[in-house]
Write a structure and sequence with these properties.
Elements lengths: L2 H23 L25 H4 L8 H5 L6 E5 L5 H10 L4 E6 L2 H14 L4 E5 L12 E7 L8 H11 E14 L11 H5 L8 H11 L2 E10 L6 H6 L5 E9 L3
Parallel strand pairs: 1-2, 1-4, 2-3, 4-5
Antiparallel strand pairs: 5-7, 6-7
Helix pairs in contact: 1-5, 6-8
The structure holds S-adenosylmethionine (SAM).
Length: 256
Amino acid sequence: MSDSETKSIKASVRTAYGDLASRLARGVDAAGCCGCGPIVVGNYDPNEGIPGLVRQSLGCGNPIAAAQLREGEAVLDLGSGAGLDALLSQRMVGASGLVLGLDGSAEMAKLAERNRLMHGAANVRFLVGDIESIPLRDACVGVVISNCVLNLAPNKRALVREVFRVLRPGGRLVASDILRVGGASAEHASDPSLWSACFAGAAAPEVWRELLLEAGFCEVEVSPQRFYDPDKLPLSSSCGVGPEFCSGLLRARKPA
Ligand SMILES: C[S@@+](CC[C@H](N)C(=O)[O-])C[C@H]1O[C@@H](n2cnc3c(N)ncnc32)[C@H](O)[C@@H]1O
């Protein structure tokens, strides 16, 4: 992919999520990044989530449930959106921990900060920046989580290297994301709306495995988790490709 294609995809993704943040701030329910509810429904137990915030979730899984966060850990949430996962993480790491949320959309970061103030979370910070060039120093967090964001990075090799760089030795990555599990059609790779809907940039499990191992990670696991009803996804009707996607979980550890 050329530099100009990468820039234009990132700009259109930023605009799409900036617009979505404004709608969420006005009280419109999220219904998932692709606008199809099934992706978000059931990811969180309403009793353990933060009810108003679950409605603003644009995730495709629940990385917090898999991350087994511990008191005192430093956590980075890549593409933190309206802040649900960061605020839930904060409850687990407690006052001695720290949670950083990074998002490319200034409007999303503003909405997350508003939610943080509403829920009185002291040890959470929301930053604006690109997940392919994380504005943090080397080896500064113990856990990187992410929910339906990694697919949005046009340069996944740069992203994976950045995650490796900011993790402390022994630190772990736990991310939910859309995976491509069937054949790919080249034509939708450049469709901006399918990029922001989290499909065009979705990679196959074996691509993630290779990139994670190449960056130096160990204990790499990429597993499909949930398949969707094709009739409810906008993809098949809008671009003629089949339902070759599912949500899945990526896990990896930086060697100690
Ligand atoms: C599908 S939403 C998921 C948001 C959140 N993780 C959740 O579960 O609700 C994707 C988020 O990633 C952000 N994003 C997309 N590309 C990004 C990038 N290159 N760097 C940082 N954030 C990005 C978007 O602004 C948006 O908030």
